[in-house]
Amino acid sequence: MSDPALPKILIASTLKSTHDTRAWEKFGLSLRETNKYQINIIGFSAKKKEISDGVTFYSSGIKNSNPTERLKAQKRFYEIIHEVEPDLVICCTFEYLRLCGSLKSKLGYKLIYDVQENYILNLSLRKDLSQASKKIRERFIRFSEAKAKVDYYILAEEIYSEQMPHMQPNLVLQNKFVGPIETLMPREIEEKQGYHFAIVGTLAESYGILDGISFFKTILKDFPFSRLSILGHVTLKDSAHQIFEAAEGISNIDLKLDQNPVNHGSILELIKEVDFLLCPYKREKAFLGKTPSKFFEAQALGTPVLYSSHMGWEYFFEFSHGGKPIDFSNPHSGIEQFNEAKSGTFFLNPDQWEVNWESDKNDFLHLIEKLLG
After folding, report:
1. Which of 55, 101, 189, 209 could pair covalently with 39 via S-S, beta carbons 3.0-4.6 A apart?
2. 145, 152 in Cβ contact below 8 A?
3. Three-state secondary structure along the chain?
4. What's the rounded Cα separation, in Å, for the pair 133 and 124?
5. Helix axes of 264-273 and 293-301: crossing angle, nearest 10 degrees
6. Whether the Cβ atoms of residue 275 and residue 195 lie closer than 8 Å to each other
7. How far is CA 76 from the centre of its chain?
8. What global pTM score does this model have?
């Protein structure tokens, strides 16, 4: 049981799990280790309220992203923030920002906006939306962010400092790996008749899922015992249909798709298990300059990454040699590129402290102390 005299911190998301990697495994656990705060977390959960190890978890009250459910989340957040009466709110979504701003003077808390995405730029990835719908959403995002009265910004990507220079003051905390580094030795890939590949996370055309499947089909011609495991969430029915259609009749492809984000532990287990992690991203403006969290995870777990050659991600692997570029848009050259990639030695400099959350944790804790001091 936490001391009721301790400062109260509320970490708030909508559809992300109460045990989300960033909100809970990074922020929540780091704060709990100090024994200086009462921790409260809002997110997706089957339980309305749960108290575990001195942390209180609240359900956002919604199961999907339709407009009615999102309105319910606003009402639920309003109730919870009055129940908790926090000293500090870490808002992990733009959707709660307007309420956070309007209640700030009344409840007297400090406000951190954890900018996990460039939400406006990400609208360019929504091929299902009309231009009119995108404009409406853009106006709502801009209005929410402008009215928030934020005390400090946490940015999940370094590029956000350039894309959103008005978000000051800020601290960059990337989506680094949580846990022990398991990449301790250089790795050479053994020759065999089949290799295990994986594509994980958000599964959509923009993320290159169809190019990844085409690449794998090419690999099968020379390595017929290869396998491709696809694990992630698909928000659009059309995307799910395209994936099933592309994989139809190929027993070497294992599909595990969900409408909601899948358990992060399952993703990490799969990354650790496979020979190669495929990251066949399309060259979309919303991706440029970003570093996918799966890069940090694969680096820490010792799994080589085959990533899109047109994204400029060579810098991330320059020191570790933990990945190789592939032109996924030209699957017919896939065999040659793959053979070249797998013949090299990966993780020549394996033990990288900077890919781990521990390298950033103290900066985060110092920020909290400063705001509540």
Report:
1. 55
2. no
3. CCCCCCCEEEEEEEEEECCCHHHHHHHHHHHHHHCCCEEEEEEECCCCEEEECCEEEEECCCCCCCHHHHHHHHHHHHHHHHHHCCCEEEECCHHHHHHHHHHHHHHCCEEEEEECCCHHHHHHHCCCCCHHHHHHHHHHHHHHHHCCCCCEEEECCCCHHHHCCCCCCEEECCCCECCCCCCCCCEECCCCCCCEEEEEEECCHHHCHHHHHHHHHHHHHHCCCCEEEEEEECCCHHHHHHHHHHHCCCCCEEEEEECCCCCHHHHHHHHHHCCEEEECCCCCCCCCCCCCHHHHHHHHHCCCEEEECCCCCHHHHCCCCCEEEECCCCHHHHHHHHHHHHCCEECCCCCCHHHECHHHHHHHHHHHHHHHC
4. 12
5. 50
6. yes
7. 24
8. 0.93
Instruction: Of 210, 176, 196, give the one whose Cα is nearest residue 277.
Output: 196
Phi, psi of 291 (to 5 degrees): -120, 105
Cα angle at 290 between 41 and 352, to 5 degrees?
80
Per residue in 112-164, pLDDT (tens digit) is: 999 999 999 999 998 888 999 999 999 999 999 987 899 999 999 999 999 99
**Residue 109, both tokens:** 């808390």
